Amino acid sequence: METIITTSVKKAAEFIKKGEIVAFPTETVYGLGANVFNEEALKKIFLAKGRPQDNPLIVHISNVDQIKSLVKKITDSAKIIIEKFFPGPITIILNKNDVIPDLVSGGLNTIALRMPSLELTRIFIDECGVPLAAPSANLSGSPSPTTWRHVFDDLNGRIPCILKGPKCSVGIESTVVDCTKNIPVILRPGIISLEDLKKFFPIVKIYNPHKTKKPKSPGMKYRHYAPKAKVILIDSEEDFLRYKFDKNKAAFIGFIRVKDFKKSKRVSDLNDYAKNIFNFFRKCDEEKIEYIFCQKVSEKGLGLAIMNRLIKAANS
User: How far is the C-alpha of 256 from the C-alpha of 293, rounded, in Å?
Assistant: First the structure.
């Protein structure tokens, strides 16, 4: 299969209309989309990624009016998030309409929805004429793609089209919030934090992953975010220097300055850290790095999302 790279929204949308899949940019990571109502097209996503079919997809919309055709009810908690955070890097979980294929929901009775803040994405969805069900546009389990080149590296020859757009400004996946009940529950942390949500809700819960075997959100169950190298989490330079390794086969990302260590990425703040995690992992894979040392951060604000990704990568 030839993979076409295009900057034309119209050209890329033609593939969706023909029942194909297309990789496209968002502000978080690149997605791999198909018509949410076309079951045969949806199957192509799982085949291209090597993705388990019980791992739910996120449905991307271009305007809030589309939500009514996808869900049974928009709850009060969902209405607040839609009003305060849409469009943006946040996903809501609601009970789905019966017309939604089970492939979208991983066999659950719920659906994950978000409206990206990147205008190019919304224009593309409008041109497609339907909402797009889309996981990240990478091979399942590998670091998420934050540039069109990352998508090409993983999926060249496996998908027909990549809509070329800008480098993702956020760099990690959206916050996912279960809004099926009155009290919102964070299933996957993201740049919109617990503290951000608490400005509008008296109570916000964080999901305990040990309570169920079925994932209600992507990134909850399977190997995720992991480079080929072994990821090791450290607190300080002293922790780092305790390890015995070949410096030519190791790399570091974090705030601290590690002396005489060339393969490193110093970040300036949490936003910079989030934006660079997956790109750094992929560069390490290209250079055949065997050990990646990542500095731990406080699990407050965006730090919760960063540690979520780092812990999953380290445990994979």
Answer: 11
99 falls within a domain: yes
> Is there a single domain that holds both residue 60 and residue 198?
yes
Residues 6+ apart with CB under 8 A from 32: 21, 22, 23, 45, 48, 49, 134, 135, 136, 137, 151, 155, 159
Nearest by Cα to 12 from 184, 114, 149, 165: 165
The phi, psi pair for 92, rounded to 5°, reads -110, 145
Render pLDDT for 29-55 as a digit per residue (tens, 0 to 9). 999 999 999 999 999 999 999 877 778
pLDDT in tens, 194-241: 999 999 999 999 997 655 555 555 555 555 678 999 999 999 878 877
Residue from 192, 231, 185, 164 nearest 11 by CA: 164
Q: Check residue 213 and give its pLDDT.
A: 53
Question: What's the rounded mean pLDDT across residues 179-196?
Answer: 96
Residue 257, domain CATH: 3.40.50.11030
Contacts of 148 (CB under 8 A, 6+ apart): 5, 23, 25, 30, 162, 163, 164, 165
313: helix, strand or coil: helix
Query: What domain range includes position 140?
Result: 4-211
Nearest to 224 by CA among 115, 136, 96: 136
Residues 42 and 126 in one domain: yes
- Looking at the domain assignment, is residue 222 inside a domain? no
Is the CB of residue 191 less than 8 Å from the CB of residue 282? no
Please write down the long-range contacts of 206-210, taking CB distance under 8 Å and 24 or more positions apart.
207/178
